Each structure stands twice: as structure tokens, then as C-alpha cells.
Amino acid sequence: MVKNTCGLAAANTALAGKQVLLYIIIVQNKAKFKEFARKMSKKPVFSGIVCEFNPLHFGHEYLLQAAKKNSDALVCIMSGNWVQRGEPALLSKYARARMALACGADLVAELPLPWAMAGAERFAFGAISLLHHLGCIGQLWFGSECGSSTALESLAGLLLSEELGRVLPDYLRQGINFALARQRAVQAIAGSEAAELLQSPNNILGIEYCKALLRLHSHIRPYTVTRVGSAHDAPGEVQSGAFLSASQLRALLLGGNSLQGLLPEACFQILQEEIDSQRAPADFSRLEGALIARLRMMERADFAALPDISEGLENRLYEVSRSALAAQQLYDGVKSKRYSHARIRRLVLSALLSIPARLPDTPPYFRVLAMNENGRELLRAAARTSTLPLATRPRDFRNAGEEIDSLFQLEARSTDLYALCLPSPPACGWEYRQGFFFARNTI
Question: Which residue, among 124, 308, 108, has the nearest Cα to 216 in the 3D structure?
Fold first, then answer.
């Protein structure tokens, strides 16, 4: 039995017998796995990355290069114009997709709005399902604080186990939030080292990726690199020579500073082009009046119908929205030890964007935002194996069925609202005028 750094057994992943033996061989020898995949499947071996690139910085570039070395093609599943923090992305999804190609990606696909704007579990499951349903054997790459995919996958198995299901309710009844209750339940079962993995944001996302792979019974194998640079969402002063976090970079740019030298050069050039064309940076303050007006028009039942609403949170949102005059005042008024700012921002933005609570478990289509020649070859292979319709242009959504059409219409409306966050908003219909970006040069 192979044990991870937390003392959890690899068997906790619910793999047994020959499956465990195959798993150990694959994890311990990436080169053999790649050759095995080529011989057994005759499909491209790809690396997948789930990302926001808000904006794409040196830490992201490091991850892209690590994934690129181990595959024939690199696929990024990227959030669209609205991101998990419940905010508009600094640059449009089209500009960020170009950044990804410039730094090593071969194909960039969009994680649709309801999954991009969800909590960690739904966010991860939606993104991983897109990679899984391409039908190609491959690898998933992500950054983490611990740097051990074995540890994170083992803990993912524990979080899906019946044992945790028996223990967790006792901690939830203590009135603490879900994240803390889960951490204490893991500590009771597996010890403090395992529980500590749930204290770091990139570890948590990595665990959710591994959970999604296990739930989907996916052949995609997870690999992680140790996160470099400033911590996720790290505040504070810029340290010379350090890779800055995305939140530090956003704060600098919105504060009127240049990001030259703080981003990969190709990414800085794209950012500067967007700024010069007044297509960046997006600033949510431009939509605050519309947000407050929208909330004041809502009844309690409307708040109760929002995604991820629970525990009477709709009543708190309704009461605070009656008097709040600014977004931050609203967030602070609803915030408590049970509800994070990010969750509140997502709920409020869901109200503005009219995101429905009832949605399919996974995205029903795979939409390409950008690709190069390598990506085009992968897409051709995926056309033979994918269990999802593949879309490269808005016209591909015509006659695709009610579910897909409804979701794309939601995406189009949200893009029109995103446009209002930009210095010079384009007219409605941006989603229909913009096709995928193609680059002939490959890295």
C-alpha cells in the first residue's frame, strides 16, 4: 500500500485490486503512461488546465510550460467574462484566450457562466467534465501549495467516502460554515496533516478536481506542480522579484499602475492593446447602480430561487438590499461567519445576470474560444470521440436543442452586461459578432 504525506492510503480513492496496481504504475511513471496511452488508444495525449487567467501571470506561465512538456497538446478550460469571485474578469475572455495561446496553450474552451460563477465543487466538476467528455486519454495539471497529487487524490477519495458522510453532520450542527466543519471532520478521521490540506485555496481546488475525476470514473490522471510566487489572493505590498498573484496585479492595474515587467511580455502586449482600445480594464463599479436597482425590484421568493441559496440566506439578502446603496455595503451587511464574501458576491451577481437555480449537472457543450494548429488537430480527433457537441462559432448553437440554446442565450446576455463594465462598452450582440481566435504559429 502506498501512503501519501498525510498518512492517508491510496486505497481511499476507492480503487482496488488491479485498478490500484495500474494507478500506482501510472502515477509513478509519467513517461510510461504517455507511451501506454499512445499504444492503447491511438488518441492524442493532451494536458488539461482549468483556469481563469485573470490576468495570466508568471505563475500561470510556469504551470503552462510544465503541462506542455508532457503532452501533444495543451487544452485550457477557462472561465468566461465573469469569474468565481463574483466579479467581472479584468479582460474579456477573448483577450485572455489570446494570452493563453501566447504562453503555450493550444486550445482554449469556455467554462459556461453557471459553472464559472459557482462554488469550488461545482466549478471543478463542470470544468473537469468538459475535459473528460472530449473522449481523449490525458492528464490534468494544476498548481497546489502541497505539490503532491497523490496526497490530494487520496484526500478526495476520503471526502467522497461514506465515513465522512457519517461524521460531517455532527460538525455542521455546531453552527460553523461547511468548509470548517469538513476540515474538522477530516481531522477526526485522518489527522491534522490531512486537514491542513483544506486550509489552502489551491489545494482545495485540486482536491475538487480529483473528486470530479473520481466521480466521473475518468481516465484522466491528475498532476500538480508546487505553486510559486505570492499566495492566492495575497494582499499587501509588491515584493521585488516575486511572482505576483492575480489579485495583486488587478489591484495595481485598477489603481492606475502599469503591469509592464509583471506579466509575461506577450500578455502585457495584449493587455496594453486592450487598454489602448478602451476594452479594458473591466470595473464593476460601473454597474453598481444597475445592481442595486435590480435587487430592490426582487421579492423574497426571487432571492430564494437563486443558485446556492440555503439556510435562510435569502431573507438576509432581501433585508440588507432594502437599504444598501453600494455593492460593498451590501456584501458587508450580509457577511457572517457562515457566509464568505465570495459566496455573497456570486449570489448577488447571479441575481443581476438572472442565472437560474435549476441547471444541468455539467455543461452541455464544448465551446472553443481560441486555438492554434495543434489545437485544431486535437479538435479534429475530439470530433470522433467527444460525447458533447463542439462549437467554434455562434451559428453552431442554432438548432442545438432547447437546453443548449437557453444556456448560450444566458451567456450572450451576460456578455452584454459585462460590456458595460468596460471603458468604452461595445453594443449588444458582442457574443454573436466574435468568432474564435486562430493562431498559425505554435509554441
Answer: 124
**Whole-angstrom distance, CA of residue 248 vs CA of residue 303:** 32
CB-based contact 164:194 (threshold 8 Å): no
pLDDT tens-digit map of 318-355: 999 999 999 999 999 998 877 889 999 999 999 999 99
DSSP string, 299-362: -HHHHHTSTT--TTHHHHHHHHHTT--SHHHHHHHH-BTTB-HHHHHHHHHHHHHT--S---SS
Identify the CA nearest to 77 among candidates 290, 328, 363. Answer: 363
Distance CA 289, CA 293 (A): 6
Mean of pLDDT values over 145-170 = 97
Beta bridge partners of 222: 140
- C-alpha cell read off for 226: 508546487
Q: What is the pLDDT of residues 268-314, one digit of tens each?
A: 999 999 999 999 999 999 999 999 999 999 999 999 999 999 878 99
Provide the pLDDT for residue 180. Answer: 92
88 sits in which H/E element: strand 87-88
CA distances from 421 to 41, 325, 343 (A): 46, 18, 21
- pLDDT greater than 70 at residue 27: no
Q: State how beta strands 82-83 and 87-88 pair.
A: antiparallel
| Amino acid identity for residue 386 in this structure | S
Query: What are the b/e assignments for 83-120, b being 16+ CB within 10 Å?
Result: bbbbbbbbbbbbbbbbbbbbbbbbbbbbbbbbbbbbbb
- 84-130 pLDDT per residue, tens: 999 999 999 999 999 999 999 999 999 999 999 999 999 999 999 99
* Integer CA distances (angstroms), 281 to 227, 342, 423, in order: 26, 21, 7
Handedness of CA 361, 367, 369, 370 (dihedral sign): positive
- Please answer whether residues 378 and 73 qualify as being in contact, where contact means their C-beta atoms are separated by less than 8 angstroms: yes
Q: Partners of 78 in the beta sheet?
A: 51, 110
Q: Of 108, 103, 97, 48, whose CA–CA distance to 376 is shortest?
A: 108
